[in-house]
Amino acid sequence: HLSTKGPTLPPQMKLSRGAIALSFSALFGVVLFFNSPRSIALSSFAPARASTRSNCVSNLRTHARKQSRRMRELKERIENKPYKTMEAIQLLKEVANAKFPETMEFHADLNIDPRKATQNLRTTVVLPKGTGKTVRVAVLCKDEDAQDVKAAGADVAGFQDLIEDINKGELNFDRLITTPDMMPQIARLGRILGPKGLMPSIKAGTVTTDVGSTVKEIKAGRLELRADKFGVVHIPFGKLDFSEEDLLENFKAIQDTIDANKPSDIKKQYWNSAYISSTMSPGLQLDLSSLTTRDYS
Fold this sequence. Notes:
The protein is α/β, with parallel strands linked by helices. The chain is 40% helix and 16% strand. The chain has 11 helices and 9 strands. It has helices spanning 17-34, 37-64, 69-76, 85-95, 146-151, 160-167, 183-187, 190-193, 211-220, 244-260, 288-292; strands spanning 103-110, 122-126, 137-140, 156-158, 175-178, 222-226, 232-239, 271-278, 284-285. It has a 4-stranded antiparallel sheet with strand order 7-1-8-9, with helices on one face. Strands 4-3-5 form a 3-stranded parallel sheet, sandwiched between helices.
């Protein structure tokens, strides 16, 4: 049956005359706005403002990379070539101009993958001529052993009092040593000691039963030697005011330790590159062939 009145809409689709009029007026207002002078002005201004901001950011990045005049002068006195170790030490002592005794640093890029357990280099090295820095050592031990530990050279020793100080954030020490039976107590302090690099560990030699000898070694210049996640070793080997012979002896101890801990599954070249620098100087590349043959002078 067909109706003569034409098709009808369902009730939910029927609109009132007021709703239809409101929809047309809103559409008409949008058309007027985008054709108005204000809209045209805003659209023309936006790209210019973005361009200005990008130019400012570009200028900031350029200034951030600018080197100081002192660093530029130092680089002018250094040749772009690999140096023998003693030659590099002498040159760094010659060009140093900081107002404090700078620390000498050794950086070795090794051909290892620290993600593999067999290539994760982490050990200790004793610098025969010391680090040139006073190291404050704390020992977490039983209260009855505190006096003997302090007699061996520890600056701080104790049990509950030391734990309370650490929980308060009072870390008045540079190295922390403990005994294996104290490890459950140390585990609770990991959130404080871990980010500071002070967490004792067996690999670092700071969890030991021979506390007295460990304290004396650390005071004498024992350091932790480890590769970062990229396989690069960063370690200090003295102060710039050390004699050239003392710096070279410390350097030899580090190189011997790295070579002695070469992973057994590394069959190709072990050393990628090696550099030494002081705190405020550019790095000097070392000649790998002379390192391999132990030709330092």
